[in-house]
Design brief:
Layout (H helix, E strand, L loop, with lengths): L6 H6 L2 H13 L4 H26 L4 H23 L6 H22 L7 H32 L1 H9 L4 H25 L8 H8 L4 H33 L13
Helix pairs in contact: 2-3, 4-5, 4-6, 5-6, 5-10, 6-8, 6-10, 8-10, 9-10
Length: 256
């Protein structure tokens, strides 16, 4: 069972970060500031989240606040994706719809079929797991799409000249982008239980849940995450690529 964590225990956990900072400075890797900044930012964000989380679950409007938090996470996902690939004309719409719909479906399965209890804390946690796993692949797919169209503009124009429709070009050029963006999530799924124990299952085990029940719950969450990531990436890449063509089938200009 978990025990109360003391501040000094958190400080001790920084030992490897301190070693990494020292090595980075010695080798002049240029990542010292990033390591320190990431550590401090994580601490501030998690402490703030913990404080807000405590207020939400004890509030009389806990469910309303929990769903507002989910909306906030979706908005942050859209903002980050837009910041990474601002050249996609339909990026905001594609990310908003794909993430919102997949999260809604996942929550419907989790709570509709009684996998876990429908409580404010569970709404936030499950949504965070799904969105947190989806965002990296969305960013990877969006940025790779923009880079490929920018760098391979001549190839796309050649396909247009040969009579390929936008749909055909999207299928030909979009498939490698989707595969590349899904590799991290697929690999994580491949090695689950072998070299990594998923966070949800670990949390359940630490909370004293029977191992087989923890495994089954993790399996459900893992399948939903994998499907959410795949569907979201496919939607964003397809919609994003089509938005890079004007109504006449000409590729829009993308700034270097």
């Amino acid at each position: 069972m978990l025990t109360d964590v003391r501040p000094e225990q958190v400080l001790v956990s920084l030992v490897l970060v301190i070693v990494a900072v020292g090595l980075a400075r010695w080798l002049r890797l240029g990542v010292t500031r990033s390591l320190v900044s990431a550590s401090l930012r994580a601490a501030l964000q998690l402490v703030a989240v913990g404080f807000v989380f405590g207020l939400i679950v004890t509030s009389s409007s806990a469910f309303v606040l929990a769903w507002l938090w989910v909306v906030f996470m979706v908005v942050i996902t859209v903002v980050v994706s837009r910041h990474r690939a601002p050249e996609l004309p339909a990026g905001v719409i594609a990310v908003s719809l794909s993430v919102s719909v997949t999260v809604a479906l996942c929550l419907a399965v989790i709570f509709g079929f009684g996998v876990i209890d429908y409580r404010p804390a569970n709404v936030i946690v499950i949504s965070g797991i799904i969105i947190g796993n989806t965002l990296p692949s969305l960013v990877l797919g969006s940025t790779r799409l923009v880079d490929q169209v920018r760098e391979g503009r001549g190839q796309f124009e050649a396909l247009v000249a040969l009579g390929f429709s936008v749909s055909q070009i999207t299928k030909v050029a979009g498939a490698p982008i989707v595969r590349n963006a899904l590799v991290p999530q697929i690999e994580r799924t491949n090695v689950v239980g072998l070299i990594a124990l998923p966070g949800a299952m670990t949390g359940l085990l630490l909370a004293g849940v029977e191992p087989i029940n923890a495994v089954l719950i993790q399996l459900i969450v893992m399948y939903l995450v994998l499907g959410s990531v795949a569907v979201s990436v496919i939607v964003v890449v397809v919609v994003g690529m089509r938005s890079l063509f004007d109504p006449n089938g000409t590729i829009r200009e993308i700034a270097p």
